[in-house]
Design goal:
heterodimer; A: alpha+beta; Porin; 2 domains; 16-stranded antiparallel β-barrel; B: alpha+beta; 29% helix
């Protein structure tokens, strides 16, 4: 039998297989509910006739008419359902499905999701009789459109923290930090739509009684053109800069602390999302790359509406995007409304490797370079114009799960270098404490151990206690600019982070983290915290 | 603005001239059959998703094709079983998502070889988790385990 014929048979089989159980299921559910309703009504009727003998025939007729209408309605519904599933499965050829395959309705749903369209492509196999249901929408229900799925991830956090702005007093708090919807649609086998719609800190509400001041934003939006294993194109859109590990894989099941690893709070301003296009591919087993061109980081940290209509910085002073206290945290380019503050295109590249000869090891090196991050019209408080300044980021990281043990090690190094720090706004904003030197860097080392907890509530649980040390120096030597230079030491930070992440499934993480923060500022309060968190990703 | 055009043009050109029928399919079912049972002279279809590999009158084993969800999209793969029900080979036919393609690495797939329905076939036990492809590695492992359970005693 030729492969083509086999494929056709497989396709035919899917159609029949998917149509039958669905129809049977819907029919039986509907008829069951229908007969229940009818039965209920009938007993109701007989009860009434028995107890109230002088009920008029008219009333009975009325009741029967109502029943008739109900039956008609249910029949209509049944018909609709039948038509619905018939459309979904296409015109099912009358082939005989193998008996064993029809045993489970689950693959029928999976199959329905792929029938009628070109997706999945020719040669795509059918699911096994034992395959789990393809619940394309949040794991709850079938996708109404073949190839469309909707995933989600999110993080809920709570606990106590030392608030530096309250003199280091401990305070309790809660944050529904992120809830992100992930629509994916395989338009064709080669053209794949991807997006992330993110709500942060509970979203936005303008009513005073709702008290929410978060974000609703498009965090990712692009279409992938799968051309060749070694070469694919990601259309212009909003995408993540390929730097470090956590920036692109920032779901809470990827790390063990409640908050993202510290290096991703400023040195890598995750979620570092930019207007971008890229190419990527897999060069060989265990080696893949991505090269991206994007709208540059901008050294502007003020509110969006402070930028002028001329897309330049406002008069009367403005906040720096890059400082010696918060690193690159406020420097991400805007993704909306043609409001970028310079014309610069930045470039980023990443090599991911997982050498086959070191099982359990994965790592990456990545870099980002912008020839000029100075926004239009940038100036020093002295009135002097600020000229060009380049930014280069470098990251190297590894993750190593020692084979046949629960031991996992992670390490990372990040460095940001400035071509001409004299042109950074932070060095010219009359604030002598937030200055930036020639570079910033940070590194972290983490050790974790995976314990299997056995089967609880029908899934296999895992507990991962961990400890991470992070050092960051955001205020190195080489300051240049018009400010006085009096760094307090607040830009030199050490984080001691310990905790446990419990995974009831690979898709859910229950976390508890204690973090001690030290900086070199003798007068400053530190933001220690004891946090709990719930994260999910599916 | 012109920068965008400049940047996008080469990629657009490549995608335009790339053969349109070429999906990112790494193996066809027939190729996977050949790879798993190079000495087979024929493949007799058993049911819609499995074939018996034969050489003359001898049954060499069974190959089963299946798919699982990776993160959002399907991963198509085959599992070849020897007559004793042990895994001879696992191949990924298609992987559609942008992240997590590491399940295709030969060294990761090689871990399945020799396993049977008596094996744990669990990530973090006898199969390594893949950093960055957690869901894909779990789902493929679960899929292989199901196939071994369903077809393990039917490969002779």
């Amino acid at each position: 039998m030729s492969v083509d014929r086999e494929r056709r048979n497989v396709a035919g089989f899917i159609n029949v297989q998917s149509a039958l159980p669905t129809l049977i299921a819907t029919a039986s559910i509907l008829s069951a509910s229908g007969s229940a309703v009818v039965a209920g009504d009938v007993s109701d009727v007989s009860a009434r006739t028995a107890s109230v003998s002088d009920k008029s025939n008219e009333e009975l007729l009325k009741k029967m008419r109502a029943m008739e209408q109900r039956i008609e309605m249910l029949e209509g519904k049944l018909k609709q359902q039948k038509q619905g599933s018939a459309t979904a499965t296409g015109s099912a050829p009358q082939t005989t499905a193998p008996a064993q395959a029809a045993a489970s309705p689950a693959p029928a749903r999976a199959a329905r999701a792929q029938a009628t369209s070109a997706w999945p492509p020719t040669g795509a196999p059918s699911p096994t009789p034992t395959a789990p249901a393809n619940n394309g929408l949040l794991g709850l229900t079938d996708s109404p459109v073949p190839g469309l799925s909707l995933g989600a991830y999110g993080e809920v956090k709570f606990g106590a923290f030392k608030n530096p702005d309250a003199g280091g007093k401990w305070q309790n708090g809660f944050d529904v930090h992120r809830f992100v919807l992930l629509p994916t649609y395989a338009i064709t086998p080669n053209i794949i739509f991807n997006a992330e719609i993110e709500f942060e800190h509970g979203g936005i509400a303008l009513d005073a009684d709702d008290k929410r001041h978060g974000t609703a934003e498009i965090e990712q939006l692009w279409i992938d053109f799968k051309i060749h294993d070694k070469f694919n194109w990601r259309s212009p859109g909003v995408d993540l800069v390929p730097i470090g590990y956590i920036n692109q894989r920032h779901e809470p099941t990827q790390f063990y602390s409640v908050n993202r690893p510290e290096l991703y709070n400023g040195l890598i301003p995750s979620t570092f999302m930019v207007p971008a296009t890229s190419i990527y591919g897999r060069l060989m087993d265990g080696l893949s790359y991505q090269i991206q061109a994007s709208s540059s980081v901008e050294d502007f940290g003020d509110d969006f509406d402070k930028r002028t209509d001329a897309n330049s910085v406002p008069l009367g002073g403005y906040a720096a995007g890059i400082t010696g206290l918060s690193a690159l945290h406020d420097s991400r380019p805007v993704v909306g409304d043609f409001r970028q503050l310079n014309n610069t295109i930045a470039y980023a590249g990443k090599l991911d490797f997982a050498p086959p000869f070191v099982p359990g090891f994965a790592g990456s090196v990545s870099g980002y370079f912008s020839p000029n991050i100075t926004p239009r019209g940038a100036y020093a408080d002295t009135g002097a114009t600020l000229g060009r300044n380049s930014l280069a980021l470098f990251d190297a990281e590894f993750r190593y799960r020692v084979p046949s043990t629960g031991l996992e090690l992670r390490g990372e190094y990040v460095r940001a270098s400035f071509g001409n720090p004299a042109n950074l706004r932070a060095n010219n904003d009359s604030d002598p404490t937030n200055n930036v030197g020639k570079s910033m860097f940070g590194w972290s080392g983490e050790v974790a151990y995976h314990f299997q907890l056995g089967t609880i509530l029908n899934s296999e649980w895992e507990a991962v206690p961990f400890y991470r040390y992070t050092y960051q120096n955001l205020q190195t030597n080489g300051f240049a600019g018009t400010d006085a230079n009096e760094p307090t030491g607040a830009g030199r930070l050490q984080f001691y982070t310990a905790g446990i992440a419990v995974f009831p499934s690979p898709k859910v993480a229950l976390k508890a983290t204690y973090q001690k923060v030290k900086n070199k500022d003798p007068g400053g309060a530190n933001s220690d915290s004891v946090l709990g968190g719930v994260g999910f990703f599916f | 603005m012109t920068s965008w055009i400049r940047l996008a043009a080469p990629a657009a050109l490549v995608s335009a001239i790339a053969p349109p029928a070429y999906a990112v399919q790494y193996l066809s079912i027939a190729q996977a059959q050949k790879q798993a049972f190079p000495s087979a002279t024929s493949f007799a279809q058993v049911d819609a998703r499995s074939w018996k590999a034969q050489s003359g009158g001898t049954v060499l084993g069974l190959i089963v094709v299946d798919h699982v969800i990776g993160k959002h999209l399907y991963i198509d793969y085959t599992v070849a079983l020897d007559p004793g029900g042990r895994i001879k080979r696992v191949d990924i036919l298609q992987y559609r998502e942008s992240y997590g393609g590491e399940v295709r690495d030969a060294s990761w797939l090689a871990q399945f070889v020799g396993k049977s329905s008596a094996s744990a076939l669990k990530v973090d036990q006898d199969i390594r988790n893949i950093s960055g492809a957690t869901l894909s590695s779990h789902h493929v492992t679960e899929g292989v385990k199901r196939i071994v359970a369903a077809y393990g005693n039917r490969a002779r």
